[in-house]
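Collaboration report, partner site 2.

Our partner group contributed sequences for two proteins of shared interest, and the home lab folded both. The records are reproduced in the order in which they were received, starting with the first partner submission.
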Amino acid sequence: MAPPRIEFEADVFSPTGMTLLVDGTAQSHVDPDDPTRLFFEYVRRIGHVLDAVRTPGEPIRALHLGGGAFTLPRYVAATRPGSTQVVIEHDAELVDLVADRLPLPADADIAVLVADARDMLSALAAARPFDAVVVDLYSGLDAPAFVDEPAFMGGCLALLSAGGLLAVNVADAAGLARLRAQTRALARADPGADLLVAGDPTVLSGAEEGNAILVAAPDGLPPGLEDRLALGGPFPGEVLTGHRLDAALWGAC
């Protein structure tokens, strides 16, 4: 099998933005001059979740399973100086190319480990707790099968500190099969955790393919997160929790 083709494309919307493409598919967007600029909709929504962890501007400990071009680690470093972060990325070539083309800020405490995310969960337990865990594991448009497993999601939840949040990027086809599977995995891993889903209404209805974010909060969702996601964009956006989430995912099942 040929190795993936990794490219960087200049952003037509800004003079300093860059898009990372793997086999022609956009994987990440980075603006090194303004790391708070989150271009992709789902990334902006995960940014809202990270903003809701702890007091705004307070340093946090964050774990990113899946690196891409390290867009969200750069965002946390910019919005929460002094944060400690760990990134797990399985593609060594990608890590090297990103480091060469878009190096991380020299003053940011970001450790990048080349490893398999599932294999690292037990090792990361010694480094817990993390205030936020972000799961964004894709090769092209495909996610590894283990993200649908309660054992994996439970391992991610076990790494959280009190009040911590887990955010998962779910790239789904029409019909919500992947979102249903990963929501079910989280519910089985921790039946008491609060769950939230945010995304484009056409995606959450199952009519269109696209990205949704799935948030799990073992100690309850932080006040204001739903409003932050609903009002902070990008638009159009919809936020589902509780009975509305159950109805959207299971009402027709």
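Second partner submission, folded after the first:
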Amino acid sequence: MPQGQSSAPRYSVGQEVIFQAALTRFYRHGYDGTSVRDIAKASGTTPAAMYHYYASKQELLMDIIGRFMEQSIEVTRAAIEAAGDDPAAQLFAAARSHVLWNASDVMSSFLVNSEIRSLEPDNRRLNIAQRDKLQRMFDSVVVQGVAAGAFLTPWPREASRAVVTMCTAVATWYKSAGELSPEEIADRYGFLALSLVGGQADSVSS
């Protein structure tokens, strides 16, 4: 199972502590319900320490969202490339990896999908560009699959969007103590993705 950004430090220890404190506070209390002082207290530092790494609370939110989306794109790209040339295998792998990725870091996934409203215009445009980039990878697989006769949907782009929305939404209800493992959920969603596009599961294996 891919590990989410909450367990993949890439900053100095001090910055990572602030990053994680903000991630948790934003998830529990919302962006508007969290102050710089709250983040400093949760990280065991001071507001001045946060400002050493981030110019504002907005920049910190954008770092959390942008980092998760950047990694989402890379995880999806790697899954598609590893699946070979078969469109059904590619879509199954992309859907499966997207479920696993979002389930691996439900806090970041939730913020990406709930706090776009809190992004300032320039940051919102950057976030939308990342979302579009991720969506286009799924679109490309589905459109090519339809052209090759592997998928029967008459609405490839709408079906592709439904696949991404469905897989992303797993983070809104997934619990590690649930009945199914992340891998089992991901397998089921991979097959559901194929059903959405009118594809066959003969060439894929869970």
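Feedback sent to the partner group on the second submission included the following. DSSP finds nine helices and no strands in the chain. The chain has a mean pLDDT of 92.
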